[in-house]
Amino acid sequence: MNMPTWIPPALAAWLPTLGAALIALLIAEIIFRIGNRVIQRAARSSLMASKLAVAVRSPARFLLYLLALNSVWNQAPGDLVWLGNVERISGLLLIGALTWLFANAVSGAADAVIEAHPVTEADNLDARRIQTQTQVLSRIVLGLVVLIGASLALMSFPAVRQVGASLLASAGVVGIVAGFAARPVLGNLIAGLQIGLSQPIRIDDVVIVENEWGVIEEITGTYVVVRIWDQRRLIVPLQYWIEKPFQNWTRQSAELIGTVYLWVDYRMPLQPLRDALKRAVEMSEHWDKRFALLQVTETDQHSMQLRCLVTAASAPAAWDLRCHVREYLIDFIQREYPQYLPLQRAEAKIDRAPAPPPTAKPQADKPDATGGATEMETPKSREAERLKDHR
Question: Domains of the chain by range and CATH?
């Protein structure tokens, strides 16, 4: 059949191949739809299978299209214009589709594991352990998948292969330089593997790091996000958790012992306080009913220190229980024994002054130093003296 004269010869040579490509795409779409329905029915009973089916659906369709096109390009005549470039682009897209497929498969499997082990339960120690391992290891595998895919894509170019061959002779020097340059990255990678395997920290662990109380919120490939109690976020590198000490309040179990300190006067009776502590913990929903103790732990010249030990199932519950017990006992002391609150004692010492001398009284005449008599002058004596002068 003669082609129209307005169609370029190069495009006319491609028309049979393009027609075969459209038929191949149609067949790939039919295969995808049939396979998708079969997989959906088979994966209904399994959370892992359903998550994987949803995750790989889009890359699997794209991959089927590329496989169908590559089969057509392989059967096309070798003298077609731009056939080599088309095959090279299809090869790059095929590598990208495979990388996309494996990356989504890893993410879907990780999501399935995390969803199967929620940390919202009361006893979530195993769930936190599994989630931590899943998140850390899945991120490492994702990084490796992307790295391998990028390497395969670059190796498909002849120029890159030649550059790699020329650099192979100086691989020792390059390796040393790259080692020094990538030391933080490699350190974080190794620290991530250690955290994922040995698990010094897990998701939702309660920790004290850099003098801050918080909860492990996220573990990435390079850092850990700690949610501080006042909703701040502390970003800590992975190597920190391997090289420096920190406190983990939920390492073996989420259960905690909370402490409440009080200072009271020495005269305060202890048995009423112990009874009040028992009533306080029984009123709280955060007490796990293991024990509640009150002990005298310290004394000084002014007061005695009381320590209350109360137990809770988790760190947040322990905090709320401690606040409740503290408020209840303070209210009890203020209401029932206000006179036994801590007092500052001081002994007042009064220095008595000597008694003042008695008031002077009129005295009889006394002999003076010369032997004469001294007369005390009074108003009457002065009047008599004036009358005598008048006469």
Answer: 10-116 (no CATH), 256-340 (3.30.70.100)
Cα gap 140→322, rounded to integer Å: 41
Three-state secondary-structure class, residue 63: helix
pTM: 0.50
Residue 350 Cα to chain centre, angstroms? 61
Rg, Å, the chain Cα set? 46
CB environment 203-214: b (16+ within 10 A), e (fewer): bbbbbebeeebb
* Residue spans of alpha helices (H) in 158-298: 158-167, 171-181, 183-198, 238-243, 270-283
Residue 76: strand, helix, or coil: coil
Encoded tokens for 190: 């190794």
Q: How far apart are CA 214 and CA 225, in angstroms?
A: 10
Instruction: Give the CA distances from residue 9 to residues 14, 15, 73, 80, 256, in Å, rounded to whole numbers and listed in that order.
Output: 9, 10, 19, 10, 81
Q: What is the pLDDT of residues 32-69, one digit of tens each?
A: 899 888 888 888 888 888 888 889 899 999 988 888 88
